[in-house]
Design brief:
single chain, 255 residues, alpha+beta, Alpha-Beta Plaits, Pseudouridine synthase, 2 domains, 13-stranded mixed beta sheet, 4 helices, 15% helix, globular
């Protein structure tokens, strides 16, 4: 297990607006990804608008770049967010650490919490949503819907409501127990609580009116917190990353 060079984190070619949240001594690091930035480039032309503006190896799932002093460095990507979703992105500075944390994700031993601004009024302050989804991936495009055979579960808590707005708005905390593609977006839409700015599953007339009123066209879905315990180097470690809620959320709720 080799440690990253002393200046490793200083040489990262971070993408536009990407900010470091926290990292530990083992080389595990979390970043806050803005909405509109890709988790990784799908092709060379995507590099300028990705988490790191460098080459990405899809098979090894790592970024690779050449620092000013020469040589080659790598950063392993541990999770992904849709380009439209902001929030916590996890990375590791070594392949051994990446393997350990990816296994936690696969075993569903990682706690994740999102915040979403939705149109409508939830019928209860807390609920557990259980659905069965159908997910279709074709030509690099993902589409999901209810009525399939893939189980999807999430806990919902209402954090704030603005009933005077037209239509009403609510800020939700969503804790997915499963990690299906577009799961939270579909589950919100099914309950007539479409996420503000969702151009696929949302309410298009309300989205247009909201964008005209506020000037914001983003998807109001944010990966707020990621936390877990992991074993590495013969010891147990705890890790927690929180990406602050973007200012657009507070502006929308106060307007």
């Amino acid at each position: 297990m080799s440690a990253a060079p002393a200046d490793f984190w200083d040489t990262l070619p971070l993408g536009r607006g990407v900010e470091s949240i926290v990292r530990d001594a083992n080389g595990l690091a979390a970043f806050a990804k803005p909405a509109g930035v890709l988790s990784h480039p799908n092709e060379t032309a995507d590099q300028p608008r990705s988490l790191l503006t460098s080459r990405y190896d899809r098979e090894g799932e790592y970024f690779e770049w050449n620092p000013p002093g020469g040589g080659t460095r790598r950063l392993w990507l541990l999770n992904r967010l849709d380009a439209a979703t902001s929030g916590v992105i996890m990375t590791a500075s070594s392949e051994a650490l990446a393997k350990e944390i990816r296994a936690l994700f696969q075993r569903k031993q990682v706690y994740k919490a999102y915040q979403a601004l939705v149109f409508g009024q939830p019928s209860a302050s807390k609920q557990v949503w259980r659905d069965r989804l159908a997910v279709l991936k074709k030509g690099g495009v993902v589409r999901a819907d209810t009525g399939g055979n893939i189980p999807a579960e999430a806990a919902m808590t209402v954090l704030h409501q603005q009933r005077a707005a037209v239509p009403p708005l609510a800020l939700l905390r969503l804790e997915p127990k499963t990690g299906r593609s577009h799961q939270l977006r579909v589950q919100c839409a099914k309950r007539r609580l479409p996420i503000v700015g969702d151009g696929t599953y949302g309410d298009f007339p309300d989205n247009r009116a909201f964008a005209k009123r506020t000037g914001s066209k983003r998807l109001f879905l944010h990966s707020h917190e990621t936390s877990f315990n992991y074993d590495f180097g013969g010891r147990s470690h705890a890790f927690k990353a929180i990406a602050p809620l973007p200012s657009e959320f507070a502006a929308a709720l106060s307007g």
